Amino acid sequence: MRKRIPLKQGSSREVLMLLFLSFIFFASPVFARENIADCYIKSFDSEITVNQDGSLLITEKIVVDCGDLPNKHGIFRVLPTKIKVEERGLVEMPIKLISIEDQTGRKYKYSTERNFLGNTIFWKIGDPEKTVTGENVYIIQYQVKNTLRFWNKNFDEFYWNLTGNFWEMEMDQVRVKIIFPKEINKENSAVWLYSGAKGERENQFADYTWTEANILEVKTNQTLPEKQGVTISVSFPKGILTYRPLPWWEKNWQYLFFLIPLAGLIFCFQLWQRYGKDLKIKKARIAEYEPPQGLSILELGRLRDGYFKNNLFTAEIIYFATKGILTIREVENGKLSFKKKDYELTRLKNKEAEKSLTSAEQKIVNNIFKTGSTKKISELKNNFHEVVSEVKKDVLSDLEKNGYLEIKGQEYQAVFAITGVVLILLAFWLLSEGWLLPAIALILTGVVFLIFMFIMPKITEKGAEVNYQLDNFKLFMKTVDKERARFYEKENIFEKFLPYAIFFGITDLWIKRMKDIYGEEGLSNQLPVWYIGGNLDSFDFKSFDDSFSKVVSSVGDSTSSYSGSGGSGSSGGGGGGGGGGSW
Predict the structure, then answer these.
(1) Where in the chain is the domain with CATH 2.60.40.1730?
(2) What is the pLDDT of residue 483?
(3) Cα 58 to Cα 97: distance, rounded to the nearest angstrom
(4) What CA–CA distance (Å, rounded) separates 461 from 283?
(5) CA pair distance 61, 523, nearest whole angstrom
(6) Are strands 156-161 and 575-576 parallel, antiparallel or unpaired?
(7) For residue 416, which of 269, 258, 257, 557 has the smallest C-alpha distance?
(8) For the CA atoms of the chain, what is the radius of gyration?
(9) Is the pLDDT of residue 238 over 50?
(10) Of the segments 28-32, 381-385, 487-491, which one has the largest average pLDDT value?
(11) Mean pLDDT across the chain, nearest whole number?
């Protein structure tokens, strides 16, 4: 029978005090964690196996406690794929994920993102449709290549951020086990440990021990706060591990994306050769004294340039005036010093002349005067956009129907336009996700498609003949001689060909040639019925062209066709690291 030994009064108080202190010591952390505002890492256990070729096999077991916090789905882990090394610049460290699972082997749902601007890989672990509470275990296993530093003349080095300095959660306990090849051991290695914020060169949070000859263990001695980490440097004799440089494709695989624009260029070029390359008339240039017949200025401009220039619409207005369909009068807008030139168009009742217009030209006339018989150029900005798109479609339709343009090239032009825009939009999305080089590759590809869009429509042999005649007619207008001009003087070729001078962009030259023919006074005395307020010499063609071109270019529809070692390291240094958090 055991004999009961009575406690003295003082002893009783001491026991009670001991129990109270024990309660405070053990209970206060629990109490603190019950009032956390976010998840925390209860334990971070990592096993790192250093392989003979310098690669690492890393298994991280992360126990996260979120308590009863709402709307938590899991964690995310971020790792660098490149690190900046003074001796080498950016060093590529390819990461291959092996598995993400819990302690029972159940696979977690996760997504992977690569940020090529920040050179990181991001694993978002958890199901967005499900929430988690309490403790959850995340076991992440991955392989990293090109991790060791072989470039020092005196030693090789394992310099690694064991935890990462960018965790948004505290870590109650960190344990890291590093397994080296047997040739690397306590006797021939030097170890430096750094802990704290990024850049910290001291160690206050961790200790290390060699548990076996080639196994090094690192443990924290207190809670590791947010954005604090542990980094280790282990140097050992050269020649133990084999340096195997990464193959070119593994270091530079992103550049393979530039094969995409190359393939796009080849694809577009082949289609252009077949459906877009214009025929050329291989005949000598000789002056022709009339423009091609049966085609409007808009049609001629579209055939010659491949798209609709703004001055085509100006030329059409002057053409309507010379045909007696409308008159032009210069007026002024504004007050005093703020007065600006404007032009007033008045429709004449000349149905016979309007009968000779194409459907596209008639639409232009009807749109200008749809609210009255008089309209200022400045007033057209409000409604001219309604007709521009229709006019272009009509012109293209007539050119195709009459055998001047191939329809197939027109279809591919639309495809190229859509493809180019989609590729560029996709590139900007990739850029926002950090995929820099793929984004650049897609932008280049999109630009290739858009360039070929502009040159895609193919003119037929009939269309090529028209362009040949146009070039010859332009030659005549630029080099007209007095005798030939006088031959046409009865037909008033100055007014007759003035719209074509605007079309060719040689208005000033044409006026100069006419002054050479008629003389300064002779040209000034010509009074065209369609220009009210002065003679042709006082008509500021450039101002009129600029005014009307601004109207055309300001409409919503474009006028173009579719148109470490030795204590020198720091916390956060070396490879590995990264961070993470909860979500």
Answers:
(1) 38-249+572-582
(2) 52
(3) 10
(4) 13
(5) 94
(6) parallel
(7) 269
(8) 41
(9) yes
(10) 381-385
(11) 79
Report residue 104's pLDDT band, with 50, 70 and 90 as the boundaries: very high
Q: What is the pLDDT at residue 555?
A: 38
CATH superfamily of 38-249+572-582: tricorn interacting facor f3 domain (2.60.40.1730)
- Which tens digits make up the pLDDT trace of 141-199? 999 988 888 777 788 888 889 988 888 889 999 999 999 999 999 889 999 999 988 88
Residue with tokens 């282990």: 234
Cα–Cα distance for residue pair 382/476, rounded to 1 Å: 39
CA distances from 429 to 64, 114, 259 (A): 33, 13, 20
Alpha-carbon dihedral 64, 69, 75, 76, rounded to 10 degrees: -130
How far apart (Å, rounded) are the C-alpha atoms in residues 238 and 506?
A: 78
Helix (H) or strand (E) holding 423: helix 407-432
Length reported for the chain: 583
Would you state the structure tokens that stand for residue 224, as one six-digit string? Answer: 């590791």
Which of 111, 112, 113, 108 shows the shortest CA–CA distance to 132?
108
CB distance 394 to 360 below 8 Å: yes
For residue 181 the two structure tokens come to: 């090849």
**Angle (deg, nearest 10), helices 310-322 and 297-305:** 150
Q: Output phi, psi for 103, to 5 deg.
A: -70, -15
What are the φ/ψ torsions at residue 413 (nearest 5 degrees)?
-60, -45
Nearest Cα to Cα of residue 143 among 575, 485, 560, 580: 575
Over the stretch 291-340, which tens digit does the pLDDT of each residue have?
A: 999 999 999 998 888 888 888 888 998 899 889 999 888 887 655 445 56
Alpha carbons 321 and 306: distance in angstroms, whole number? 26
CA–CA separation, 480 vs 485, rounded Å? 7
Other C-beta atoms closer than 10 Å to the C-beta of 568 total 10
